Amino acid sequence: EVQLVESGGDLVQPGGSLRLSCVVSGFTINNNWMSWVRQAPGKGLEWVATIKQDGSEKYYMDSVKGRFTISRDNAKNSLYLQMNGLRAEDTAVYYCAREQLRNPWGQGTPVTVSS
Amino acid sequence: DVVMTQSPLSLPVTLGQSASISCRSSQSLVHSDGNTFLHWFQQRPGQSPRRLLYKVSIRDSGVPDRFSGSGSGTDFTLKISRVEAEDVGVYYCMQGSHGPWTFGQGTKVEIK
Fold first, then answer.
1. A33 interface with B at CB cutoff 8 Å
2. Which residues of A touch B102 (CB under 8 A)?
3. Which of A40, A64, A90, B103 could pair with A68 in a Cys bridge, judged by C-beta atoms 3.0 to 4.6 Å apart?
């Protein structure tokens, strides 16, 4: 069974940092582009970042460039999102997904940025 | 960035009737490789999103054939035939042809 399990979300003050993890089982991520997508409370879906199979290409939405870093460890079948300089507008549930956001998605991990 | 515009944003439907959602993009979604990466997602209340259709009209595994997609270029449609109670939720179109990937605003489907 394919599963993606996100973790690492928390309540953090503005300017703080968090590292999100996505542990995958049921398939090997080294054949897949992987992405993070987020959803602010009561809002729609927003693509955040994508990384190529070998990590050689990374793409980010404009508002997180320079603050967020997507990475992967294929040996651990895991995806990460290092988030620095967090802002209130980064408050959201963060989901990981493979390829063109293929199913299944995980349950997401909530990030709240507030003082 | 490619802007995705959905309509309507709210769609009350009668059980057993059909429903259609329109999604328009600000530029053609034909990728340089010839594919059109236009996908549809469903998010039921309290659940994670799930992809229903990819590349305009291909149903994901386990998706009922009541869901169908059509369109090309900049104009796309999701049709739900014979709406059931389990179809209540928010539906999003998304383009993955041009970076950054972008979503429509979402269409909330509810039962009349």
1. no
2. 47
3. A64
How many alpha carbons fall within 13 Å on the CB side of residue B12? 1
Full DSSP string of B17-79 = S-EEEEEEESS--B-TTS-B-EEEEEE-TTS--EEEEETTTEEPTT--TTEEEEEETTEEEEE
On chain B, the residues whose CB falls within 8 A of the CB of A46 are 103
Q: How far is A104 from chain B (nearest CA, A)?
A: 7
pLDDT tens-place values along chain A, 115 residues long: 999 999 999 999 999 999 999 999 999 999 999 999 999 999 999 999 999 999 999 999 999 999 999 999 999 999 999 999 999 999 999 999 999 999 999 999 999 999 9
DSSP 8-state class, residue A102: B
Cα A5 from Cα A94, distance rounded (Å) = 11
CA B58 to chain centre: 12
Residue B42 contacts residue B95 (beta carbons within 8 Å): no
Do A105 and B105 count as a contact with CB atoms less than 8 A apart? no
Residues near B32 by Cβ (< 8 Å), separated by ≥ 6?
none
The answer to whether A105 faces chain B, any CB pair under 8 Å, is yes
User: For B61-111, how does the pLDDT look when each residue is reduced to its tens digit (9 = 90+)?
Assistant: 999 999 999 999 999 999 999 999 999 999 999 999 998 999 999 999 999
